[in-house]
Amino acid sequence: MADVYDMHCHLGFAADAPALARGGAAAGVRALSCAVTPDDFVATRELLAPYPDLHAALGLHPWWVADGRVGAPDLACFEELAEQTPFIGEIGLDFAGARANAREAQAEALRRALAATAPRGGRLYSVHAVHAADAVLDLLDEAGAFAPDAGNDVVFHWFSGTSAELARARARGCCFSVGPRMLATRRGRAYARDLPADRLLLETDAPSRLGEALEAAAWQAQLDDALAQLAAARGDDPAELAATLAATSARLLAR
Fold first, then answer.
1. Bond from prior residue into 80 cis (ω within 30 degrees of 0)
2. Which of 13, 32, 85, 219 lies 20 to 30 Å from 38, alpha-carbon distance?
3. Which of 37, 104, 110, 46 has the alpha carbon at shortest distance from 77?
4. What is the pLDDT of residue 166?
5. How far apart are CA 34 and CA 56, in angstroms?
């Protein structure tokens, strides 16, 4: 079986994050662990330093921006840290429910995050977009993230936008990380079936909240389940699909 990659998780959220990282690395799991704040990134980077196949990404989660947990000092810290890593996530926009009231604050945070990273090129972005995929794509375009010579790659995490937004993101060359929760919806399965295999990645988005208990064996089981569900939704051979996903993941992380 090909190497297994979790291209969107939150290892720093785990109740025993050192044990999860140690156990996952020992099992051969490779991962992109997304931060929700700059402080979260700094802590996660230190946690994962002994494990070369577990990567920490610098993030500004739109939920934290919307409710005020991320403010001006955090934005300034993000900008200072941006030169230290090619991995950026979780960033984006979420205009669902009450979070839509913070559209301007979210857009400004994302605009600044992209301005601090996209022009330098060579970045891998893991992007959150809820009721906001077009708005995210607009800001990525504005920042020059898709410039042919920039060498940036954009991954939409758990894509839930419209088919027109999906087509636009696909035309921009984006990839899409898929997990069990996306595959639990009819739309999610349809998107996962219709996209080319080499644009797809696996994700768990786990642990889903701070302090959640998650052991390495359970983490690996979630990835195995995600692969099985994705292969079933597409009608693909699991081993062949796993090899394609691993090749794309390895390419994206090689920076």
1. no
2. 219
3. 37
4. 98
5. 6
Maximal CA-CA distance, the chain? 48
CA dist 70 and 79 (Å) reads: 13
Residue 6: strand pairing partners: 31
Q: Please report the domains of the chain, with CATH numbers, ordered by start residue.
A: 5-253 (3.20.20.140)
CA distance 120 to 141: 15
Q: Tokens for 225?
A: 């389940």
Could you report how far apart the first and last alpha carbons of the chain are, in Å?
Answer: 24
Query: Are 26 and 220 in contact, with CB atoms under 8 Å apart?
Result: no
At 3 the pLDDT is 86
pLDDT in tens, 130-173: 999 999 999 999 999 999 999 999 999 999 999 999 999 999 99
Cα separation, 138 vs 150, in Å, equals: 17
Residue type present at position 47: L
Its pTM stands at 0.97
Do residues 112 and 75 lie in contact, with contact meaning Cβ atoms separated by under 8 Å?
yes
- Residue-wise pLDDT tens digits, 173-231: 999 999 999 999 999 999 999 999 999 999 999 999 999 999 999 999 999 999 999 99
Which spans in the chain are helix H? Answer: 17-26, 38-48, 62-66, 72-81, 103-115, 133-143, 163-171, 180-183, 186-194, 216-234, 238-253
CA gap 238, 244 in Å, rounded: 10
Residue (of 83, 110, 6, 90) closest to 41 by Cα position: 90
Residue with tokens 């699909």: 241
Q: Which residue has the tokens 């044990």?
A: 19
Interatomic CA distance for residues 172 and 144, integer angstroms: 12
Q: What is the mean pLDDT of residues 17-21?
A: 97
Given a cut of 90, whether residue 59 has pLDDT beyond it is yes
